[in-house]
Write a structure and sequence with these properties.
This protein has about 400 residues and is α/β, with parallel strands linked by helices. It is built from 15 helices and 10 strands. It has helices at about 20-25, 45-55, 60-65, 70-90, 115-135, 160-180, 205-210, 225-230, 235-245, 270-285, 305-330, 330-345, 360-365, 370-375, 380-395, and strands at about 20, 55-60, 95, 140-145, 150, 185-190, 195-200, 220, 250-255, 290-295.
């Protein structure tokens, strides 16, 4: 039985650009201690139900759509049926990726494996998957190194692994260019799991790595909430750094308790303040990308619970988006922020607020006499600002 969710101002619409992966709503509730608790949902059903809920699109790994051992005839039938579901609903495929972590052949890694045959197969599999994504109009291609790591440092040097990962991405960038594929590549970091330690474990590591590639202009980031928070980091800071660098090509939204395994909880179900500031960051920046939910329903849920999970993920984002508008319109909050903006605009000699160097500015700055007592006495009213933000989120403002 399907429950119809009531429509209100928070109900998702396609122009919100909410997307899900086939692997997210298609998750069957397996965990390391228990097998599946839900039946598989066909990809075409996922497309139609997400469209009914107001989503914009659906993304996939190659094997989410086409089984690893599918025949040519199987592939053609699956692609035809999936294209029809997309055409019938108006749903899009903005992003595609490759599963290089599930099959046993990738147990030691894919692009970074010590086995050259595995590295070559990983490239072959990715090229086929890139072809598939283009067939459905995908513009972003995500790389998550699920098995690109190790349990013991005795097996390989990290610099060798990074060199292999660079060679793979350079190869695939050239493949995209040679075939005139209009892809932007997005790298997704994670500190650990399923390996004991993963290479390039944070968005900062990935950002530094990008500038060592042959075509850094083609490559950006796909930061994920849970992956940054697993190691106790603030997700908004990773996203902000990506935005500032012009490298936020995609984003994965979910919920996570710090220092836990990768929980992939419903967006906003944990750390509501962190989720609020993330939404504020994206909306204030008017970031045009997809709001992609890389998460899944609790293991406790039946299929209806899966669709509830999808609906509530989108609804929570829209609720927080409305809270952002209230934050911007709140006169007391903005008065405190105006005080901070005034401090930021103060000019110190000719160097200005931007700290732009010139010999004259350096000489003047060295000679300037600062009122240290006033600097020490300066208060910033952040306690009040944080409390007002908290009250806004709790619904009392």
């Amino acid at each position: 039985m399907t429950t119809k969710h009531p429509q209100d101002t928070y109900s998702p619409r396609p122009d919100d650009h909410f997307t899900f992966g086939l692997w997210t709503v298609g998750n069957r509730g397996r965990d390391p201690f228990g097998d599946a608790v839900r039946a598989a949902i066909p990809p075409t059903t996922i497309v139609r139900r997400l469209a009914e809920l107001g989503a914009y699109g659906v993304n996939f790994h190659d094997n989410d759509l086409i089984p690893f051992d599918a025949t040519t005839a199987d592939r053609e039938r699956i692609v035809k049926d999936f294209k029809k579901a997309l055409a019938d609903t108006g749903m899009k495929v903005p992003m595609a990726t490759t599963n290089l972590f599930y099959d046993a052949c990738f147990k030691e890694g894919a692009y970074t494996s010590n086995d050259a045959r595995v590295r070559a197969f990983a490239l072959q599999k990715t090229m086929h998957a890139m072809d598939l994504g283009i067939e459905f109009g995908a513009k972003t291609y995500v790389f998550w190194g699920g098995r690109e790591g190790l349990e013991t440092n005795a097996c390989k040097a990290p610099q060798d692994a990074i060199k292999r990962f660079r060679e793979a991405l350079n190869f695939l960038c050239e493949y995209a260019r040679d075939n005139k594929y209009d892809y932007q590549f997005a790298l997704e970091a994670k500190p650990n799991e399923p390996r004991g330690d993963l290479f390039l474990p944070t968005s900062g590591h990935m950002l530094a790595f990008i500038y060592t590639l042959d075509h850094p202009e083609m490559v950006g980031l796909n930061p994920e909430t849970a992956h940054e928070q697993m190691s106790g980091l603030d997700f908004s800071h990773a996203v902000g750094q990506a935005l500032e660098a012009g490298k936020l090509f995609h984003i994965d939204l979910n919920g996570q308790k710090p220092s836990r395994y990768d929980q992939d909880l419903r967006f906003g179900s944990e750390d509501q303040k962190g989720a609020f500031f993330l939404v504020k960051l994206l909306e204030d920046a008017r970031w045009p990308g997809m709001r992609h939910f890389d998460s899944h329903a609790y293991r406790t849920e039946d299929e209806q619970g899966v669709w509830d999970f999808a609906h509530y993920s989108m609804r929570t984002y829209n609720i927080l988006k409305e809270k952002v508008a209230r934050f911007t319109a709140d006169k007391e909050i903005q008065a405190i922020l105006d005080e901070q903006r005034a401090l930021d605009r103060q000019t110190v000699v000719d160097i200005g607020a931007g700290l732009r160097y010139s010999p004259r500015a350096a000489t003047q700055l060295k000679q300037h006499v600062f009122d240290i007592a006033a600097l020490r006495a300066q208060g910033f009213r952040y306690e009040r600002l944080d409390q007002l933000t908290t009250e806004l989120l709790l619904g009392t403002r």
